Amino acid sequence: MDDSRAGRLLAAFIVTGLFFLALPGTFIGVGNLLLIAASRAPTAPAPAWIQAHGQAQVFGWVGSFMFGISLFILPRFRGIALASLAWGWTMWALWTAGVALHWLGGVGDMPAHPWLVVSAVLELAAFIISQYLLVVAPARAARAGSGTLRVRPAGAARDLGTRLGMAGFCGLGLTLVVNLVAAIQVAPESAAYPPVLDHILLELSLWTFLLPIALGYSSRFVSMFLGLRPLHGTQVWQRGLRGFDLNRLLMLMVAALAIAILLQAWPAAAALALVFAATTVWALRIFEPPARPALLGGVYGGYAWFVRIAFVWLLIGAVIGLMASADPARSGLAGAGRHALTVGYIATLIFTMAPRLLPEFLHRRLASRALMAGSLWLITLGCTLRVLSEAAAYGTRLSWAWNLLPISGFVELTAVLIFVLNIGLTVARRRAVQMPASAPHHRPISA
Ligand code: HEM
Q: Which string of b and e fits 112-151 if b means at least 16 CB within 10 Å?
């Protein structure tokens, strides 16, 4: 397949993601935060607006980035091209329409219920097409004995990235089914999902979709870029402990998390989430001395430290989540823990990895290292202020915390806008170098 045509599909997903990150995602998030700070009441914004913000960030931004990168890179990992660009574009159109409809249904004046259902159906349809392109078509190619296809040797264990990727896509499928059920349950006069279903949806989307996929990609790209030592599980396997497959164990933990969340066993789910996060960080060897210096490849030199900071946020988010489940009356803890995971971990990881990966995938140079540095420092500052002030403010009268909340929102907003500008300018640049079509991206990473 022509590399530039696959690149255009990737660019479409990236631009879509940037749009949802900036406008429906962060502007509405900051608007909600200002309302909460002004009235000193976490319940001040309409639930539909809070949910519209969450959906725009989780599905509109991270989901679009994740689909675009997966459709671009996963077939190449196996040495084949994407089975059908036409289906890829169909999937992009359905996904974008679905996410946009939820947002319009949530914050617009039109009757929300039918649009929320249509939105959920479109998102599910897009997901099914993605699985055809990423799972069914490559399996057919393997059965047909495609010459270039890389097939896993019989008996060899699947690696951590594959296991977590499988878990994450199953988690996304389950999340989208619950999303449809929640949309059907919306009362005719309301635009918000019922609170219990919304809570289940939130936790599923975090722990069974976003985090497994982000950790799966980290096991490939973060390990390679930061020059980390071989993953822990791999070494245990090589030493001959054949009964112990850490990668399978982590996948089973995601399945157990899904069950605990569906049963609303919140303390059990939070404890399992912490064990899952800590075990994955240990397996990735993020905090161990690396085997070689990080690969810079034209990006901000300090990015490797921000990757490590992202993983600190992952652990902090999981610990705060456990504290929140033990003390549900402290309402700030749940929101603070959620944003330690979404802004601290997911956003920081994407702010480090997207400028490192996308220019290479799209054959362009990164627009600005200074903008990359600015977005990383500010998102770290904003997230620190946010987690501290939200945990302290909600449910209390602590003035310093309430006064800090809006400042944290503006700092996060600035970081997001800088990131959007940098990646937007990068995508808008002309293609620079020509690389061989379907080049496997295990290899061509420049120092
Ligand atoms: C960058 C600036 C951001 C701001 C100012 C912001 C603000 C908010 C606010 C005020 C809430 C209401 C609940 C609470 O007070 O905690 C909220 C909820 C939420 N946010 Fe954010 N947020 C931001 C970024 C993100 C990101 C990057 C993600 C995901 C990748 C995200 C996902 C969510 C989710 C899932 C909810 C819960 C929605 C629900 O209850 O259905 N947020 N956010």
A: bbebbbbbbbbbbbbbebbeebbeebbeebeeeeeeeeee
Residue 339: its H or E element: helix 331-339
Residue of 410 and 243 predicted with greater confidence: 410
* CA atoms of 319 and 9, how far apart (whole Å): 38
**pLDDT at 147 > cutoff 70:** no
**C-alpha to C-alpha distance for 191 and 185, rounded to whole angstroms:** 11
Convert the pLDDT of each residue in 293-343 to its tens digit.
998 888 999 999 999 999 999 999 999 999 999 998 888 999 999 999 999
Q: In the chain, what are the domain boundaries?
A: 1-143, 287-431
d(CA 140, CA 194): 41
Please report the pLDDT score of residue 148 as a whole number.
62
Supply the pTM of this predicted model.
Answer: 0.93
Q: Which residues approach ligand 1 with their CB closer than 6 A?
A: 26, 29-30, 32-33, 36, 42, 50-51, 53-54, 57-58, 62, 198, 202, 335, 338-339, 342-343, 346-347, 409, 412, 416
pLDDT at residue 111 tops 80: no
Architecture of the domain made up of 1-143: Up-down Bundle (1.20)
Of the candidates 126, 149, 125, 122, which has an alpha carbon nearest to the alpha carbon of residue 137? 149
